[in-house]
Design goal:
about 170 residues; alpha+beta; Aminopeptidase; 7-stranded mixed sheet; 4 helices; 7 strands; about 30% helix; globular
Length: about 170
């Protein structure tokens, strides 16, 4: 079940961030994130405060989380987007995380399906998101699900230097 996050979910989301950082340091994941820089508990807290943090719960456990809103980060201005829709028609997915022990069970795919439904329900015809170009696992999933690569933007992203931000998009109708 995917639902808006509540204050009681912050510890679980922060724990997922920490387990992802552990996996990065162990060499089993490479989203290009840096422990203590991004994502951190304040990342989840800010999204909760805005009301756009969502969690995927299975069997009473939070196994995935993400942020859904219409905030296009400044780096998107350099994206190679196929369309130039009005901002109110664009829904953006940020900081999608799946707990490492729960990966490869379809939770990422389920969250992306929810994202599409959420966008439709809010009158958004265009989906946008990004990931570090290094994050091949995410890029493979996104392209399999119909997202188009919309350019790579070299930048400092969320305080991480040397990021090659891969922009992605999908038109719903």
């Amino acid at each position: 079940m995917i639902r808006p996050a509540e204050a009681d979910d912050l510890a679980a989301v922060s724990a997922i961030y920490e387990r992802i950082h552990d996996a990065i340091e162990a060499g089993s994941l490479d989203p290009g994130w840096v422990r203590g820089v991004y994502p951190v508990p304040a990342t989840a807290q800010a999204a909760l405060d805005r009301g756009d943090l969502f969690v995927l719960e299975d069997g009473g456990n939070i196994v995935a989380a993400g942020v859904l809103n219409q905030i296009q980060v400044p780096e998107y201005a350099q994206g190679d987007w196929a369309d130039d829709p009005p901002p109110e028609e664009v829904m953006v997915l940020h900081t999608l995380v799946v707990d490492p022990p729960a990966q490869r069970r379809g939770y990422g795919r389920a969250f992306l399906a929810y994202y599409e439904d959420y966008a439709r329900a809010h009158g958004c015809r265009y989906l946008r998101m990004d990931t570090n170009r290094r994050n091949q696992a995410a890029l493979n999933l996104y392209t399999r699900l119909g997202f188009r690569r919309a350019g790579v933007v070299p930048c400092i992203f969320e305080g991480i230097e040397g990021v090659r931000l891969q922009c992605l998009e999908k038109r719903l109708w």
